[in-house]
Backbone:
């Protein structure tokens, strides 16, 4: 899709019924995100989510998909070494039915990515705001605003691609930087809060359906406001991404 400049439409899902709805709406990539710790389990962060919980939700979601690619998050502390990562990613594929795993981290994850890739496991590397590092980052903040941080992120992206990453995800990154990274790497890049210059977009399902209480992040649009059903909201989102109407400049940094 990247060479054709076809925008990749992605959303999170955590169960059979929503997975079926996303598939029917033509979503290309479904992520069983560890955001389930917050939107399903009610935790403050994604940190408490376990491997067994990810596998359970992945299996539920896989049952609803016929067309979309199924990607699943490796939860906090599940990829602290290449061996541990391989064992856990293998479980997500064999027991959960995942087709790709996603892990948070920069070039320090290169050996992990290489081991997974060499064993036939497609990998997405998650850069920018990494929610599993929220306590280290000091909050949910835009990443890569300073020149040296921006350069580091570009180098991370290239290192991870070199190690075998098949996809990159940029979260809460200035739009200019996200466009630059998208242009510098060959693999597709999907963004959330990263502007319109990436190869695709992803949102947390509960955010775009207006189910998340409290302050809505700037990069989210509630598609239920213009829809009379969940199916219509999903179709509006898919069309808006494909026709480059979402994200608009006001959703970026
Ligand atoms: O866990 C998740 O849902 C994610 C998205 C924010 C992309 O990683």
Residues:
């Amino acid at each position: 899709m990247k060479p054709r400049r076809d925008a990749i439409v992605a959303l999170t899902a955590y169960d059979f019924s929503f997975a079926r709805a996303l598939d029917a709406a033509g979503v290309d990539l479904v992520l069983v995100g560890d955001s389930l710790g917050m939107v399903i389990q009610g935790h403050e962060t994604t940190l408490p989510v376990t491997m067994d919980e990810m596998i359970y939700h992945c299996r539920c979601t896989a049952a609803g998909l016929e067309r979309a690619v199924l990607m699943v998050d490796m939860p906090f502390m599940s990829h602290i070494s290449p061996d541990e990562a391989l064992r856990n990613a293998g479980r997500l594929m064999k027991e959960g039915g995942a087709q790709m795993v996603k892990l948070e981290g920069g070039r320090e994850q290169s050996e992990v990515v290489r081991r997974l890739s060499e064993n036939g496991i497609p990998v997405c590397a998650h850069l920018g705001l990494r929610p599993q590092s929220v306590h280290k980052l000091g909050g949910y903040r835009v990443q890569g605003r300073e020149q040296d941080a921006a350069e580091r992120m570009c180098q991370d992206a290239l290192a991870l691609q070199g190690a075998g990453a098949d996809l990159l995800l940029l979260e809460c990154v200035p739009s200019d930087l996200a466009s630059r990274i998208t242009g510098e790497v060959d693999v597709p890049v999907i963004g959330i809060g990263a502007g319109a210059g990436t190869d695709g977009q992803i949102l947390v399902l509960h955010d775009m359906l207006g189910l998340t209480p409290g302050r809505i992040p700037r990069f989210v649009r509630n598609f239920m406001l213009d829809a009379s059903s969940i199916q219509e909201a999903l179709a509006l989102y898919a069309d808006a991404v494909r026709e480059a109407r979402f994200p608009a400049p006001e959703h970026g940094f």
In short: The chain has ten helices and eight strands.
